[in-house]
């Protein structure tokens, strides 16, 4: 049998030559005087922002979620349509006002105390 001879130098790859990297220069440098003029021009050319279509944001009202059963929601919707009220919120508010008007003096006093406590707690 013949002996195998291995030539290690043939297996190794020669490294690629590295070329010199040239330092690039910027086309334009920062000039504070030019920038202030540009900012002033942009400020003068700025047009008023367009109003976005959709529902307006109301900052005065604050909302909170109340969980209701589907049957109760159906009742509120039925009242809303029967009384021609604009929103569910207005329907519930109107129903609560009617209940408050039917309270006797002791119940009304207790309601006012509870309401005052909850309002202070919220702040």
TrEMBL record:
Stretches with biased composition (Basic residues): 49-60
Record-linked Pfam families: DUF5388 (PF17363)
Region Disordered: start-end pairs: 1-65
Start-end of Basic and acidic residues biased regions: 22-31
Superkingdom field: Bacteria
Protein name: Replication-associated protein RepC
